[in-house]
Write a structure and sequence with these properties.
With about 550 residues, the chain is of the alpha/beta class. It folds into two domains: about 15-150, Chitobiase, domain 2 (2-Layer Sandwich), CATH 3.30.379; about 155-505, TIM Barrel (Alpha-Beta Barrel), CATH 3.20.20.80. The protein is built from 15 helices and 23 strands. It has helices at about 40-55, 115-125, 170-185, 210, 240-250, 270-275, 300-315, 340-350, 355-370, 400-405, 415-420, 440-445, 475-485, 485-495, 505-525, and strands spanning about 15, 25, 30-35, 60, 70-75, 100-105, 105-110, 140-145, 145-150, 155-165, 190, 195, 200, 215, 235, 255-260, 320-325, 375-380, 390-395, 410-415, 460-465, 540-545, 545-550. An eight-stranded parallel sheet has the order 16-11-10-21-20-19-18-17. Helix 10 links the parallel strand 19 (about 390-395) and strand 20 (about 410-415). The protein is globular, with a radius of gyration of 24 Å.
């Protein structure tokens, strides 16, 4: 066996292959997948993938001692790994490690967990032809390269965020996105479900949240402050059954769904539905512009109870132990003249209005803790004193992450300059309109989630990282796919792959694998951006001399 480059994204920890592309196994109609009983869900998923793409009949057999099966899924701990790889696998992710062996006519995947077995199957999928990523088409036998692959994730939090408030995205797209997240071995889908511009989840005790709060009369189409609108009503929401389907679909692919109910700011849609939640008593309109609103929740006990009621109903749908309460961009202007806010400040001995947000966030954290949940918030929760045990998402840069880690908090890196995918890929006028700034694939790939300012004993507090897609300028799933891909492919590698002595980080090497990976995305039907710029159909500007404008 010899080490050779193989086009797998994210890059495994170690890959060795046979000489001259020797086949280690052959998959064909009637093949048998033997699996440990605890891995039946992973076996069924892969059977579905193969049967849809090939038209084969794929058989399953639950057994602890696979024999003549073409594919074997084994549950087991690893013995000591070769070449010092043991030291490179963090204790927090070791259960998701896997070993894939393709030789002697058989593919064997061994892992301590179902998640690890699933990741091994995703790697096997990338060893197969692009046709396996289609829903139909191929029926002939498929050789599998002779290979030995050892792999494990670098970080336990490998997140992908989607804002469905600024522009509502259909359930079908979310399911497709989950499949793409899973292909890239990411394991968190963060759904931003409520904001000033729309409320997307039904709450039985407060039906006006969707009857009124899910709809706005029009949307801004210019930059902030330009006063340009499209005049088209917009909105929508997911039913409880839709969300339960999303959660179940994600669980089958080892993706946790993180709900975000943004509070106490970004609540104009809720106040539009229930004016008594606000500080003025006036009914607002669901916001039609972007940016930050001064309208935030009041701090009355009835409003606190509203928030805990909402948390209870949302938590009943989303079973993951983490729950996101937003907490970002919360102006305190209205609290400055609020009698209730002044009362709390006096009772608590506060000297700054910002401490009121800490008081509010602590109330939410206490309620979540009683339900066995951990509070997650954007970095601003640190300013009012983040509750003990909470997780901070550092979106403004490294300083917040360092501050949080030094205070004993766990951190997820969401740095806007590298991981905000609503920004265009470049300053090329052909790029569709986006948020200010530009982030190309190489910039994403070269990002390092763990700040050099952290002490060695603090670095484990960085759980991982997350890429964000805010949708002020993202009106359709097609546009969302363009902005996610191929940057999400680069992101997946920075949160999964660990550098080794023989595989230093190289964008040039990654780009070679990525060029091959784009063929898989094309087979799936992803509207990705080509590496050399948008196609004429994707571009925002046309050049008479040759299609889309380019630099």
């Amino acid at each position: 066996m010899t080490a050779v480059p193989v086009s797998i994204i994210p890059r495994p920890l170690s890959v060795t292959t046979g000489q001259h592309g020797v086949s280690g196994a052959v998959l064909s109609d009637g093949l048998l997948i033997a699996h440990a009983p605890a891995l039946v869900a992973e076996a069924r998923w892969f059977r579905q993938v193969l049967e849809a793409a090939t038209g084969w009949v794929v058989n399953l057999a639950a057994t602890e001692r696979p024999g003549a099966a073409t594919i074997e899924l084994r549950l087991g701990e690893f013995e000591v790994l070769p070449n010092g790889l043991d030291a490179l696998i963090p204790a927090a992710t070791r259960r998701d490690a896997y070993r894939l062996s393709s030789n002697r006519g058989r593919v064997a995947i061994t892992s301590p967990s179902g998640a690890g077995a699933f990741y091994g199957l995703q790697t096997l999928r990338q060893l197969l032809p692009d046709s396996v990523f289609r829903r139909a088409g191929r029926s002939g036998a498929i050789p599998v390269l002779e290979a030995e692959i050892l792999d494990a994730p670098r970080f336990s939090w490998r997140g992908v965020h989607l804002d469905v408030c600024r522009h509502f995205m259909p359930k079908s797209f979310i399911l497709k996105l989950i499949d793409l997240i899973a292909l890239h071995k990411c394991n968190v889908l963060h759904l931003h479900l409520t904001d000033d511009q729309g409320w997307r989840i039904p709450i039985e005790r407060y039906p006006l949240l969707t009857e009124i709060g899910a709809w706005r009369r029009e949307s801004s189409v210019g930059g902030e402050g330009e006063g340009l609108f499209d005049g088209i009503p917009h909105g929508g929401f997911y039913t409880r059954e839709d969300l339960e389907e999303i959660v179940g679909f994600a669980a089958e692919r080892h993706v946790n769904v993180l709900p975000e109910i943004d509070m106490p700011g970004h609540m104009a849609a809720a106040i539009a539905a229930y004016p008594e939640l606000g500080n003025t008593g006036r009914r607002l309109q669901v916001r039609t512009t972007w940016g930050v609103s001064n309208h935030i929740l009041n701090l009355e006990e009835k409003t606190v109870r509203f928030c805990t009621d909402v948390i209870d109903e949302v938590a009943d749908i989303f079973p993951w132990t983490c729950f996101h309460v937003g907490g970002d961009e919360c102006p305190t202007v209205e609290w400055a003249t609020s009698p209730r806010a002044k009362q709390i400040m006096h009772e608590q001995g506060f000297t700054e209005l910002r401490q009121l947000q800490g008081w509010f966030t602590a109330r939410m954290a206490e309620h979540l803790a009683r339900r066995g949940r951990t509070l997650v918030g954007w970095a601003e929760i640190l300013e009012g004193g983040a509750p003990e045990g909470s997780i901070a998402m550092s979106w403004r840069g490294e300083d917040d992450a360092v501050k949080a880690a030094r205070a004993g908090h766990r951190v997820v890196m969401a740095a806007q300059d590298w991981l905000y995918f609503d920004r265009p890929y470049s300053s090329d006028p052909a790029e569709p309109k986006g948020s200010p700034g530009a982030t190309d694939v190489e910039k994403v790939y070269m990002y390092e989630p763990v700040s050099a300012a952290l002490q060695p004993e603090q670095r484990h507090q960085v759980l991982g990282a997350q890429c964000q897609l805010w949708t002020e300028y993202v009106t359709t799933p097609v546009r969302a796919e363009y902005l996610y891909f191929p940057r999400l492919s680069a992101f997946a590698e920075i949160v999964w792959s660990t550098e080794t002595a023989g595989q230093p980080k190289s964008y040039e090497e990654f780009e070679q694998r990525l060029a091959r990976h784009l063929d898989r995305l094309a087979a799936i039907g992803v509207n990705y951006r080509p590496l050399d710029g948008p196609t004429p159909g994707q571009a925002s500007v046309w050049s008479e001399s040759g299609g889309a404008v380019s630099e």
